Amino acid sequence: MLLRTIKPAAALIALIAASPASASDLSGADTAWLLTATALVLFMTLPGLSLFYGGLVRVRNVLSVLMQCFALAALMSLVWFVAGYTLAFGSSGVDQGPWLGDMGNLFLSGISMDGVNGSIPDSLFVMFQMTFAIITPALIVGGFAERMRFSAMLIFCVAWVLLVYAPICHWVWGGGWLGSMGLQDFAGGTVVHISAGVAALVAAVMMGPRRGFGSVAMPPHNLTMTVTGAGMLWVGWFGFNAGSAVAADQSAAMAMLVTHLSAACGSLAWMAMEWLRHGKPSVLGIVTGMVAGLGTITPASGSVGPAAAVVIGLTAGVVCYFATITLKNRLKIDDSLDVFPVHGIGGILGTLMAGIFCSPHLGIFSGNGFSDGVDSIAGQLGIQATGVVATFVYTAIASWILFKVVDAIVGLRVDDDEETIGLDLVLHDERGYDL
């Protein structure tokens, strides 16, 4: 069983966001670790996710995906500076409402070099959370890859981070209603993976499939690039999950261990499913299974122990594998890079499994314990399910509205001829390769 001093990230982050501290409370160890974790999470987007996605698309669209990820890293940083952070976390020392943070940190006006929250600088917490606000919309790119206008993508993502990501982040981590209810989401099962996955699904349904989907083969153009990006994601995810402990302590160490085990098991489970069903294991399969294992352990990484992480990873590899097949082959939905079946389903699965394996009464599978006021798996599962449903429904409705508005303003999709030529030339007047 995990040490009883480990606490859910939602509680830690709410404490940091709500409680002022003095410079004497600053911890050099915690600060050093969070600086490292922040760099690792940014590394997940640039270059990790960029290369992972870039290799999965066809050759005529590789630059468009790299450009989208790079541009989002820059643009979402400014969005977080202007209003994203204050909408999500509000002002230190001020009781926050259940839905949104106050506007006391608009343009980061309340963030100074000397400010300390908890045991780390104010500015470091802002920067750490900024990297989450960067990668979440970047994940959505995989749902509309190879067919969305660059201008439409930028407008949508600005609005989405302010109107979808920031509110959900506040609900869970900023002192909002889900965190107060006792939702266990250590590093972003609801905030990051379900929200990004659902938004990608809405995009895929609204925009329709790529030309030739279902009748023309659309294999990745460069799996070497994808595997390189996957390795970067695996390493960067340690900052994502272990960094969410907001301290250099036993919680961070356990989060790192269970993250690694789940990634390994997700990889092997997906590989095994392909091997059994198709006779050969694929490189694409093993790296996709890794991402499924990572996304699924994310909400549970502060709540469970190693044995539970193995079960979660193995389950993720199998469930996300079948979800991918179902979405593409049976439902005929062209989520280009499998964002919803991997991240959305993985986030749902991990959030629910956190409610089971956090129980202190499961022997080798025991976790850190239920949230305050909860005394059973059924009670914790009810809270987890509430978080899943609320995130899913709100994201779906808000994303649909935003896509409709953006479509009316600039149009969501390039025309058929432009799609055939490829977004690299049509939107950026460049080629990914000139050999």
Descriptive tags:
435 residues, Ammonium transporter fold
Strands, count: 3
Strand order of the largest sheet: 1-2-3
The overall average pLDDT, rounded, is 94
Q: What is the CATH homology-level superfamily?
A: Ammonium transporter AmtB like domains
CATH class wording: Mainly Alpha
The best one-word shape is globular
* Largest sheet properties: 3 strands, antiparallel
Q: Would you tell me which CATH topology applies?
A: Ammonium transporter fold
Give the SSE order as H and E letters: HEHHEEHHHHHHHHHHHH
Number of helices: 15
CA-based gyration radius: 20 Å
Give me the secondary-structure category.
mainly alpha
Q: What is the total number of structural domains?
A: 1
Terminal CA distance: 57 Å
- Share of β-strand residues: under 5%
CATH architecture: Orthogonal Bundle
Unreliable segments (pLDDT under 50, ≥5 consecutive)? 1-19
Helicity range of the residues? 55-70%
Protein architecture, described:
The chain is mainly α. The chain has a single domain, classed as Ammonium transporter AmtB like domains (Ammonium transporter fold), CATH 1.10.3430. The chain contains 15 helices and 3 strands. It has helices spanning 9-18, 28-56, 62-89, 122-144, 150-173, 177-181, 189-207, 223-242, 250-278, 283-297, 306-330, 339-357, 377-409, 416-421, 423-428; strands spanning 20-21, 116-117, 120-121. The protein has a 3-stranded antiparallel sheet with strand order 1-2-3. The longest helix has 33 residues, at 377-409. The N and C termini lie far apart (57 Å). Mean pLDDT is 94; it is low at 1-19.
